[in-house]
Write a structure and sequence with these properties.
By secondary structure, the protein is α/β, with parallel strands linked by helices. It has a single domain, classed as NAD(P)-binding Rossmann-like Domain (Rossmann fold, 3-Layer(aba) Sandwich), CATH 3.40.50.720. The protein contains four helices and five strands, in the order βαβαβαβαβ. Helix 1 (18-29) links the parallel strand 1 and strand 2 (33-38). Helix 3 (68-82) runs parallel beside helix 4. The two termini are 22 Å apart.
C-alpha cells in the first residue's frame, strides 16, 4: 500500500521497542526516514540499525520527552540528519500497573509527565518546521 510518504521524515517517540518500534519500521517500509527516540539509546540504536538493515533510513537519538531542551535537540538532530520533519508520532508513554488505591502520587505524576507533557513538548518543538513547510502530520 502506498501512503504517499516516500522521502518524508518522521519522528517516533518511545520507539526503541514495542508499538513505537513497529510504527517506525512500518513508516520506513513506506519510504520515510525515521528518527528513533528513546531514553534507552542502545535499544534505539538497535532499532535504527534494524531498519537500515532492511533498506530504510534511520537515526537513533536519546531523549527524555519530559525535558524540553532534550526534545528541541532531538527535533534538530532529525532535521539536521534528514533535512525535514513531516510526521511526529507521540508514542512515548508508560503505565504504572497499580490500582488507583495503591498508586503513589509520584507514579501518577510520572505517567502524566511522560504521556501528556511529553506530547506537549514534542508537538511544540515540531510544529514550527511543519508550518514553515506548509505540511505536516501529528499522531497522538
Amino acid at each position: 500500500m502506498d501512503l504517499g510518504l516516500k522521502d518524508r521524515v518522521a519522528i517516533v517517540t518511545g520507539s526503541a521497542r514495542g508499538i513505537g518500534a513497529e510504527t517506525a519500521r512500518m513508516l520506513a517500509q513506506e519510504g520515510m526516514a525515521v528518527v528513533i527516540t528513546d531514553l534507552d539509546l542502545d535499544a534505539a540504536r538497535e532499532t535504527a540499525c534494524g531498519i537500515e538493515r532492511e533498506g530504510g533510513r534511520a537515526i537513533a537519538v536519546q531523549c527524555d520527552v519530559r525535558q524540553e531542551d532534550q526534545v528541541r535537540g532531538m527535533v534538530a538532530a532529525g532535521k539536521d540528519a534528514f533535512g525535514s520533519l513531516d510526521v511526529l508520532v507521540n508514542n512515548a508513554g508508560l503505565v504504572k500497573d497499580r490500582t488507583i488505591l495503591k498508586m503513589e502520587e509520584s507514579d501518577w505524576d510520572l505517567v502524566l509527565d511522560v504521556t501528556l507533557k511529553g506530547a506537549f513538548h514534542t508537538t511544540r518543538a515540531a510544529l514550527p518546521f511543519m508550518h514553515e513547510k506548509g505540511w505536516g502530520r501529528i499522531i497522538n
